[in-house]
Design brief:
The protein is mostly helical. The protein folds into two domains: 64 residues, no CATH class; 50 residues, no CATH class. Helix 5 packs across helix 7.
Amino acid sequence: MKSQKPRIDIINEVLEECILAFPVSSFIISLYQRYQKMGSLSKKQLIGLYDKASKIQGLAPNKLATLEAIIKRMPTRYKSEKPEPKPLFEKDPVTGKMLDEILSKYPEHKRALFLKAKYENNEPLSAMEMDDLKRFNKMVHAK
C-alpha cells in the first residue's frame, strides 16, 4: 500500500486564523461551520474569505497566495439572461388589412367580425378561416 502524505488544508488554516482575528464575525463562523460540515466552499464564499483574511496583519502571504490560486482555479458560473417574452402569435399586418377592408365595406359581416375579434385577441387563424378571409376579400375587390 502507498503511504499518503498528510495534506495541508490551507482553507481550514485560513478559516481558523480568521476566527482568531475576528471572533464575533458571523460570516467567518458560518463559513467555518459549512467547511467542517460539507468539506468545501463555493467560489464566492472563498472570495469573501480571502477579503477577510487579507485584512489580518500576521497572516503568512503564502497562505493568501495559495487561497487566491484555489479561487482562480475554480470555474466561474454565469447565469444566462432570461429571454424576453414573445407573444405566442404575432399579428400578420396583411390579415389585419384584409379584415379592415372587408369591414369598411360590410361593417355588419358576422364572420368578418368574428375573425377580427380572434385577430385582436392574438389568436391564430386556422387555414379554413384564412381561406374564408381571402374569399371575402376577393368578393370585396370584385364589386
